[in-house]
Amino acid sequence: MNRPIDLEAEAWERPIGPIRSLWEKQWFRKAVIIFILALAWEIYARALDSELLFPTFLSTIDAFCRDLINGRLILATKETLKVLLLGYGVGALVALLLTVFAIVSRVGSEFLETLTSMFNPLPAIALLPLAMMWFGLGVSSMVFVLVHAVVWAIALNTQSGFSAVSNTLKMVGRNYGLTGVRFIGLILIPAALPSILSGLRTAWAFAWRTLIAAELVFGVSSGSGGLGWYIFEQKNSLEISSVFAGLLAVILIGLIVEEGIFRVIERVTVGRWGMQSS
Known about the structure:
By secondary structure, the chain is an all-alpha fold. It contains 13 helices and no strands.
């Protein structure tokens, strides 16, 4: 007697070809997207035929490799990342203190909500003229602007994450005798980690964009190094392919931080714990 054929089972048992198996990998699909964008860039630039307005992808890569080898891009990137880490770290610390103050008291919560409503919509770059008057031309002014760009995104997301922690989980922590810093570290932070990571990621994007813009202004004023100053300097020299090389460096650093740091942290924490990132 013939048995009915289970088409669905046969489909699952059919081996997947190497091309289909490769396509199932996320990194390969993203690589294909980047390749298509680079190809479209090259085709459009060749059709435009004006290196002064829009250099080709290959000439941009050539300028990128040239300035990478001679050290100009490396020095500019080191200067930018040094300021970024300082401003981001100070901003994260200030956000942590404000959030802890908001957790332990109702006045602190209202204080943080009021400050966030006032200053979060204010673009950080708008504070640049004041920073230049208060702190002069240098790293201190850029750090001040970066702190403003970082604080509110981290504080707002962290407070929202803490507020969303279930009362049952809080009661479990209190039943175990957890209070103060131990309660925050062992109960609130792990439970609110998706929101905290979202705030850190958003703050990074704000800080990165703000710093490049600030370096353009400070570069004009004081000739200080950094990727923003590198881009401005190449524009003044009409080295447009090098301008695009600087922009490419900004994009690559953003991709590395996003995919190599935040994605990894999210995968080994939120993903492994079965939590949904906000």
